[in-house]
């Protein structure tokens, strides 16, 4: 299967040759040892994130790295919010030469609803060779970011992220 090689220019990659990631929901029934699966969208996406208070439970909203476009494959340059009850999809798109890492949902300390919080992501800006920390309102991704913090140095583009409320400074 074709893939992307280390150091390869993303603008030279033929993404149509690479199978896109898809969003699926799996339901496991541990009593009768069965499972079923169903697709939750037909768009290219990777790395879903939900409110951590709902891990292992029913949830309505998820946030996921995606392409700008509703079809085909490509680099992750957008973040989508998917409402699993209504099917509504909200999208925040990065710039033409910006690439998103894994979006992380951070709940508001006094949450009153499942999507009450923020979505954080590292954005690599290839035009300026720098990284930004992006903070979006989890209720509505369509508005302007709440904050975009320019870092002094770039963080090598990665795929996964984590959040902790603890501070690790020397």
UniProtKB/TrEMBL annotation:
Binds 1 Fe(2+) ion per subunit. The keyword Repeat does not apply. One of its GO terms (biological process) is carotene catabolic process. It comes from the Bacteria. Keywords: Iron, Metal-binding, Oxidoreductase. Signal peptide: none annotated. It holds the Pfam family RPE65. Belongs to the carotenoid oxygenase family. PANTHER family: BETA-CAROTENE DIOXYGENASE, CAROTENOID 9,10(9',10')-CLEAVAGE DIOXYGENASE 1. This is Carotenoid oxygenase.
